[in-house]
């Protein structure tokens, strides 16, 4: 949903699931993190967290 401009149906199509699945996953993400992905501030917070996690995953132990 973060990459589709907040469009739930477009998000569902992009990951080949039913829109209700996207709704459920967003609800679970909010329950687990305490941050709502449908709120603009929450969405931004999650985008930053995901970007930082990706950067950390890409780091090599040898650098």
From TrEMBL:
Domain PucR C-terminal helix-turn-helix as annotated: residue spans: 2-51
InterPro entries: CdaR-like_regulators (IPR051448), PucR_C-HTH_dom (IPR025736), PucR_C-HTH_sf (IPR042070)
Top-rank taxon: Bacteria
Gene3D superfamilies: PucR C-terminal helix-turn-helix domain
Name under which the protein is recorded: Helix-turn-helix domain-containing protein
Species, as recorded: Blastococcus brunescens
């Amino acid at each position: 949903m973060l990459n589709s401009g907040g469009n739930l149906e477009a998000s569902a199509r992009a990951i080949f699931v039913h829109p209700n699945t996207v709704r459920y996953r967003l609800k679970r993400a909010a329950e687990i993190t305490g941050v709502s992905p449908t709120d603009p501030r929450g969405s931004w917070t999650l985008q930053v967290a995901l970007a930082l996690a990706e950067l950390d995953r890409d780091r090599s132990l040898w650098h």
